[in-house]
Hints:
By secondary structure, the chain is α+β, with helices and mostly antiparallel strands. The chain is globular. It has helices spanning 2-16, 41-45, 149-156; strands at 20-25, 30-38, 49-52, 55-58, 61-63, 73-82, 85-89, 107-112, 115-122, 129-136, 139-146. The chain has one domain (20-156). The strands form three sheets. The protein has a four-stranded antiparallel beta sheet with strand order 1-2-6-7, with no helix packed on it. It has a four-stranded antiparallel beta sheet with strand order 8-9-10-11, covered by helices on one side. It has three helices and eleven strands.
Amino acid sequence: MKYVYIIIIYISATVFCHAQRKSIQLDDNISLIIEVDSISQEDFNKNEQIIINGIYFINGEPVYGTDYHPPTTKINSIYLKKMQQSIKLDVSYMYNPNLYMLTEKSFRIYNNNDIYVITGKFSDGAGSYVAQWIIKENCSNRIIISNDEDILVKLFFY
């Protein structure tokens, strides 16, 4: 009987608590807190879906992280934690990250006089993309989001 309760609790937790959170330490003082949630497929089946120049669109908005099929997860938030500060990064249009594969090696950080540039590589296997943010004081601005392989290579492998 004890095992039945454990199974019921596990099933309830996975059905009602879809959001997953991960903390990634980038250096001694900086970490990223990433939260990902499941997406209802029924919502996407009703929406307009098109492909333009290799980018998947739903209702006129780009979807990064998929190869021409509705996404299954969405990045809800990424926060940069620096000492006592918490700075929210723009995560619009960012889908299907493999949260388990995201590590410190998935990100690059550059600091010049307290202006930070953070580059992240996200993928669910085939739907890879890159995003880059500039952070100054308490403000962040995403300057790049792309699934172009040339951009990914330039930003991540040089």
